[in-house]
Specification:
Blueprint lengths: L4 E8 L6 H13 L4 E8 L6 H11 L3 E6 L5 H11 L4 E4 L11 H9 L4 E6 L7 H18 L7 E8 H8 L8 H8 L3 E6 L13 H15 L2 H30 L7 H34 L6 E5 L4 H5 L1
Helix pairs in contact: 5-8
The structure holds uridine-5'-diphosphate and magnesium ion (MG).
Uridine-5'-diphosphate (UDP) binds next to strand 1 and helix 3.
Length: about 325
């Protein structure tokens, strides 16, 4: 449909060998869609030749734009920046390593034209990932579902199409602890799901090690649930009740049977156990306070060092 425009946002960190293969796969798909398109790379502080590759791509193709961060701010921030800079009646977010196949975009656009405001890519077969990572992901989704009330459809990844109205909604959210997948679900709108098979990475390695994934999972839970905070009220209540009953037991035992002095191990064990419970609950509170601190500082989500390609490229090409 001429007049409609689509912007494909691609966050990239050190993907110098992926820019050309990605463009080679993406452009034919976009050309076949019967709409005006742009590609917006968000360079998340790459330290290799990624930016040079993007510049070269933008020099060859005027519909390629980019913003480059002053340092690595993280993929969630890169996606937030992409959503703010993108023009178009619809935008697509996709990874730059071809694990989100461009071939699926046609189906995304079809669903959008049928009226969906958000189209989620759902990873069907993902044998490319290690069993450990799949299990960790499943465990996280189950935990998130319990804590945050099951708002996240299973297998949803950051391969998603948003209508302009949904982009505008996303752009109103300026929280710093960003769990973008959760935010997509949070804004609502009628959504469609397109399953796809995720192949293995063509070049390079994943940018998410276990530590980063754990932090991301904690961010997601802290941003969408206060249950970890509130549960200590119940735990504390139960422990106090237990202590009261135990005291009553000793009282009656001393009164009617005998008083027994030995009990050193049980004292040590209970002191250690309850110190542990207290530190654990303090730690949980700390996780939230740290994030509150991040929010109140109100620093910008990212710093843009450079923009590549005319900001009006979309209109000029349209
Ligand atoms: N990425 C990014 N900033 C980061 C980490 C990753 O922009 O701090 C990009 C990365 O270049 C890729 C996408 O996010 O385009 C997904 O990353 P990756 O493939 O490493 O994650 P995985 O597929 O292993 O979950
Ligand atoms: Mg990947």
């Amino acid at each position: 449909m001429p007049g409609q425009s689509l912007c494909v946002i691609v966050p990239v960190l050190n993907e110098e060998r992926m820019i050309d293969p990605l463009m080679a796969a993406l452009v034919p798909v976009l050309e076949g869609l019967d709409l005006d398109w742009t590609v917006l790379f968000v360079d998340d502080g790459s330290t290799d030749g990624t930016l040079a590759q993007i510049r070269a791509a933008a020099a060859r193709e005027s519909r390629v734009r980019a913003i480059s961060f002053s340092r690595n701010f993280g993929k969630e921030q890169a996606m937030a920046a992409g959503l703010r800079f993108a023009k178009g009646d619809a935008v697509i977010l996709m990874d730059g390593d071809l694990q989100h196949p461009p071939a699926a975009i046609g189906e995304f656009v079809a669903r959008w034209r049928q009226g969906a405001k958000i189209v989620f890519g759902q990873r069907g077969n993902w044998q490319a990932e290690t069993g450990m990572r799949r299990r960790a992901s499943d465990a996280f989704h189950a935990t998130f579902g319990v804590l945050a009330g099951g708002r996240l459809p299973r297998g949803i990844v950051d391969f998603v199409l948003l209508d302009r109205t949904a982009v505008a909604a996303m752009n109103q959210l300026d929280e710093r602890t960003r769990f973008t997948k959760g935010l997509f679900a949070w804004i609502g709108f009628n959504a469609a799901v397109v399953p796809f098979d995720a192949p293995a990475r063509l070049h390079g390695v994943t940018k998410f090690n276990f530590r980063k994934l754990l932090r991301f999972a904690l961010d997601g839970i802290a941003a969408f649930s206060t249950l970890p905070l509130r549960v200590w009220t119940v735990v504390g209540g139960l422990i106090s009740l237990g202590a009261l009953l135990y005291a009553l037991y000793f009282f009656l035992k001393t009164l009617f049977v005998s008083s027994s002095v030995p009990g050193f191990p049980s004292i040590i064990v209970s002191i250690m156990f309850f110190s542990g419970v207290q530190l654990l609950s303090l730690g949980v509170i700390g996780e939230y306070i740290g994030r509150i601190f991040d929010e109140v500082k109100h620093r910008p989500l990212y710093i843009v060092a450079e923009e590549i390609g005319a900001p009006t490229a979309n209109a000029a090409d349209g």
